[in-house]
Amino acid sequence: MLLAGLSATPALAHRDDYLNETFVFQTLEAHEFEPEVWLDFGPAKDDRPRFTAWSAAFEYGLTKHWMVDGFAGWMDPTGEAASLHRLRAETRVRFGEEGDRRVDVAASFEIEYEKLREPAVPGSPVRPEVEKDWSLTPRLVLSRDLPHEWNVTLNLDVARELREGRSDRWTPGYALAARYPREAFLRYGVELRQDFGEERESLLVPQVWLSFPHEATLKIGAGIDLDGPSRQSFLRTVFEVEF
């Protein structure tokens, strides 16, 4: 009874993007606005110190099938003052309604700026910074509803870095995600992200969603590094509400 009382009845099924930003087929309805707050924590690992990151994001529906979103993130890698480390803007259009086709199709285009940090030099207290210039990422979003309220979503993308010396390079990648059930107070999901750049990077992110009244959702999950010392695992919490 408690779960039934807390649950809400959203207008759209499978409307929430995943914690590691696997984008879903559904878009917001026209003029709907959804602000989000993100909190990340990464424990120390090998030559990488612990970090805490805070982010603010939003989504807005331009039309029934077209939306935009923005993201700004600040990171504190050493316990000192946080600094801006990431900006992102994305637009997405979906073709038709969910369930119209055997596979639902949407398209996305993203521009992003991210500041990265090199691994620490042994014996040196200084951690040099490397700035990753703007990158462009077109993306295809494929979604399929399965029996017993499962949904599977696949993102296929290529990223082009605009940093000097790399502006002619395209890096392919994909994200495969699944969630259950269709709509409920407590939903479960998992996503796998792989990028095929100079260093193949793989990240597994199990997660849960808690759906509250008034279109509010709390997402909690963990990023599990599948590539040893080249990446860093993390914990992530996202809270969003829709207007």
Account of the 3D structure:
- The protein is mainly beta and about 240 residues long.
- The protein has a single domain, classed as monomeric porin ompg (Porin), CATH 2.40.160.40.
- Helices cover about 0% and strands about 60% of the residues.
- It has one helix and twelve strands, in the order H-E-E-E-E-E-E-E-E-E-E-E-E.
- It has one helix at about 1-5, and strands at about 35-40, 50-60, 65-75, 85-95, 105-115, 130-145, 150-160, 170-180, 185-195, 200-210, 215-225, 235-240.
- It has a twelve-stranded antiparallel beta barrel.
- Strand 10 (about 200-210) and strand 11 form a beta hairpin.
- It is globular.
Explain briefly what this protein structure is.
The protein is mainly beta.
| The CATH topology | Porin
Distance between the termini: 27 Å
Radius of gyration: 18 Å
Strand order of the largest sheet: 1-2-3-4-5-6-7-8-9-10-11-12
Judging from the principal axes of the Cα atoms, what is the shape? Answer: globular
Mean pLDDT: 85
Strand residue content: over 45%
The total of beta strands comes to 12
Low-confidence stretches: 1-11, 119-128
CATH superfamily: monomeric porin ompg
Helix count from the secondary structure assignment: 1
